[in-house]
Structure formats: structure tokens, C-alpha cells
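Changelog-linked ticket: 3,4-dihydroxyphenylalanine example.
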Amino acid sequence: MFDKIKQCEKNVLNFVFNEEGNTLEKFRLDFLSKKGEMLLLFEYFKTLPVGDKKKYGEMLNELKNITLEKYNNKNNNKTPQKQIEKNTLFPTYQNTPGAIHPIRIVEEKVLSVFLSLGFDFAEAVEIEDDHHNFAALNFKEDHPARDMQDTFFIGTNLLRTHTSSVQIREMKKGVLPLRIIMPGRVYRNEDISARSNCFFHQLEGLYIDKNVTFSDLKQTLFYFVQQFFGEGIKVRFRASYFPFTEPSAEMDIWAGIDTEENKRLTKGTGWLEVLGCGMVHPNVLEACNIDSTIYNGFAFGMGLDRMTMLKYKISDIRDLFINDIRLLSQFTGV
Ligand code: DAH
């Protein structure tokens, strides 16, 4: 390839225009037409392995510039339309900047708020066992979540259905007090719709100490949403039930009902549930060898995909997973 490019360059430079044979038209036919020497090199270039492309791409572009300059200089006294544009004739290879996925952007923003509050960071395995995903979290033997209908099993193990399993792994390490934040991917055998997918992202929070109160939990979450969405954000807590917390609650964020998308997303209520939370059940503490007469704490599990949808007004959760460049490229440089 090197020799061919050099040879072509020589031929271009040695071409002397005259009125007989070596006309401008001949120059165009020899080098710039589809069968011309230079364009054939560009065709051949396309078949090279990626590694060679970088090496020869620069040489070829140089050759292209020399050839076009010679052609256009000679052509100067002709009508301007006949000039061949430097940058439109041949494709050039450009660097297109990548973008960070919106879920990752949201995860990092959420983490930064909790890290600033003194929380530590932890992660754990996605393939879990029954003990960490269910039993130690106070799920009864016959709880429906243990059903094949709801959970993906791999032999006796399973794809974790929530990041709450990481709580167990962290509490069992026996270092107290404990204040941690645990993001990760989770899996459920769900019907896929605009609101739910069979895998998604959660972020678990856990605070274990002496004399922790439900007000501590609410205030921490209030502070978080204000930092994340800004001061005007509207939230509400609803009483709920989880086997691993007592009392339990869910937190909703006001998305509004001004658009059809918001109505669909919020099932017509305007509110979108973004997390479950509560005071850690004494049985869970005891399963992790923590004396529940001395220690207590709060926990929460947040849906990062829903937070992303609210933050960036994305009305269908599936849009987050189909890698549509029209959506992703909007996050370049965020
Ligand atoms: N694990 C629950 C779920 O996936 C969410 C959750 C609720 C997490 C309450 C918690 C909690 O830590 O305290 O639906």
C-alpha cells in the first residue's frame, strides 16, 4: 500500500498540463474519476485491517489534498462549480465522541450525594443463593418471590432479585456502625412494559447504629431528593410491607399528569414510586449476628432506572436498553 500511494503521488506531481494530451480532463480521469488511480486506492483502503487503516489513512488524505490542490489550481479560471470540493468528494474518518449511559450518569449523581453524607460504597455478586437473597431477609419459606414465576433460578442459585442481598453480606462482616450504599443490577421474571423490564438497576442504602429513628430515614431521603432534583421536588411516603423492614414505606415522586406519557407512566396518578424503605427488621439483624436489643437501623432500595426516567423525561423504560444512538448521543459531554 505504501509503495502504491507513493507511486500515485509521484504520478500526480509529474503530471504536466498541456493543451494536447495532458488536459485538465485527462488529469481528472486519471486520478479523480471512479476508475482513477487515486480513487482505486481509496477503494482498496476500505478492505484493509483496522490497524493498517490508521497508518495509511493519513497518507491517503495527504495524497488527496495534493491531487485536489493541483486540479483546483489549474481549474481556477473555470467556473467555480467545476471545482472539486476538498471535503465532500471522499469520506474522511472522524473521531466521534462517546457518551456515558444515562443510567450511569444518574448512578454517579446519586452516589455522590450519599458519599458526601458519609456513606461508604459496596458491591457484591449478581448470582446469589437463597440465603442472602431471601432467607436472611426474613422471607417465609412459601413466599411467592421464591417462585419460578418471579425469579430466574440457575440450579440452586438465582439471579438476585434485589440489591438487599448485599445488606446481608455487609452486615455479616461484623463491623458496626455501618453506613453503606450499594448499587447493582437485578433480575426478575417480569412482563416487559413501558414501566418494567426483566432486569434493572437498584441502589441499596443501609445505616445500622444505636438509636436510629424513622425520622433519620425520612430526613436522609428528603435531603437526597432535594440535592438530586432541586428544591421544588414533591415527594410522599406511603405505608407498605417488606419482610425485611418494620415499619415499611414506599416513596413516590410527583411526575405530573400534564402529558399522555406521564399519565401512562404514573397510571394516571401523577406519582411514580421510586423506592422502598423502612426500619431493618430485628430478625434480619439477628440473622447477621447483630444484637437487635442494642443496634437498629434503616434501609432503602431505590430504582435507578425510574430515577433516570424522571430526571431525563424518558417515558418508556425500554428506551434505556435498546442502545438507540439518537437517545444516547444526547448524553455526549454530560
Ligand atoms: N428490595 C426491595 C425491592 O426490590 C426494595 C427495598 C424495600 C429495599 C425496603 C430496602 C427496603 O432496603 O428497606 O422491591
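Closing comment: Example verified and attached. The first helix runs from residue 2 to 14. The pocket of 3,4-dihydroxyphenylalanine is lined by residues 162, 164, 204, 242, 245, 276-278, 299-301 (CB under 6 Å).
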